[in-house]
Fold:
Amino acid sequence: MCLLPPALCRLIAGLMLLGLTGLLAACASGPGKVAVYQNEGFEANETFSRLFDASAEATCEAARRALLSQGYLLTTDRQDSISASKHFQPEGEVHVQIAFHVVCSADGDLGKLATAYVNAIEERYALKKNPNSASFGLAAFGSVSIPLSASEDSLVKVASETVPAGPFYDRFFALMQRNLVQQGGDQ
Structure:
């Protein structure tokens, strides 16, 4: 029972409930939560690489052709590495970009084997609307602010994640292998 006015009692009860909710949330996300890097298994069967029966140059050329054939825009194109990106708009106010990176490394003494190391990063953006307004002041009347119907839109990054090893990379490696077969004599 509260001896204070009813409005003040409700306010105090609400603040206590809010504090208790915050305390429970802090306990739930406390020391029991595992850091992201703790889940890194470095498993041999979940790699971001594949060994090819070709030179490093031919392997990177196959990767370059695979990326170009899928609409990726090359941002860096060197003999032993490639970076490319592709943009998507799955929804009206959502933008997604995939940045793809490939490094080709010679394996073995004869230079006839190469490993392609790849990773792709998916970045997700959302459209943020910032309404515009104009204000002017007159000494006798003060300041007046008038909202304008136009708004300034900007993309805000809301997520960034490395695409996990699996089918996405398997499809890329299969296309690289097909390109290597088509290149034939360049190996």
